[in-house]
Amino acid sequence: MTAVVEAEDHIAERPSWDCRSCRKSWPCEPARERLRGEMDRTQLAVYMWANLEEACGDIPQGPASELFERFIRWTH
Ligand SMILES: [Zn+2]
C-alpha cells in the first residue's frame, strides 16, 4: 500500500485562509462539496462557526459580515 498525498483536499492554509490546493479563498467550492458530503447541516454549521472564529483572529480586516457570508452562508 502506498500512502496517497491528498493534494485535492482543499484545506485552508493559515493564516491566509486560502485553499492549499487551488489558492482561492477558503472554503472554495471543492472544499464546500467535500464538507457537505462529510457532515450533516448541523455538524457543518458548528464546524464552520469554529473556523469562522479562528479566521476572525487571523484575518481581522474587513467587516465581520464578509466572513459570515464566506464561512456560514453556504451551509444553510
Ligand atoms: Zn480549493
Question: Would you mind describing this structure in some detail?
Answer:
This protein has 76 residues and is mostly helical. It has one domain. The protein contains three helices and two strands. Strands 1-2 form a two-stranded antiparallel sheet. A hairpin with a 4-residue loop joins strand 1 and strand 2. The longest helix is centred in the middle third of the chain and has 18 residues. It is globular, with a radius of gyration of 13 Å. The relative contact order is 0.15. The model has no long low-confidence stretch (mean pLDDT 89). Bound molecules: zinc ion. Zinc ion (ZN) binds next to helix 1.
Topology:
Blueprint: E1 12-13, E2 18-19, H1 29-38, H2 41-58, H3 64-71
Antiparallel strand pairs: 1-2
Helix pairs in contact: 2-3
The structure holds zinc ion.
What keywords describe this structure?
3 helices; binds zinc ion; single chain; 2 strands; mainly alpha; 76 residues
Brief rundown of the structure:
The chain is mainly alpha-helical and 76 residues long. Helix content is 47%, strand content 5%. It has one domain (13-75).
Structural class: mainly alpha
User: Which sheet architecture does the biggest sheet show?
Assistant: 2 strands, antiparallel
Task: Report the order of strands and helices.
Answer: EEHHH
Mean pLDDT: 89
- Runs in which pLDDT lies below 50 for 5 or more consecutive residues are none
Largest beta sheet: what is the strand line-up? 1-2
Our Rg estimate from Cα atoms comes to 13 Å
Bound molecules: zinc ion
How much helix is in the residues?
Answer: 40-55%
Question: Total number of helical segments?
Answer: 3
Proportion in β-strands? 5-15%
- Span from first to last CA? 39 Å
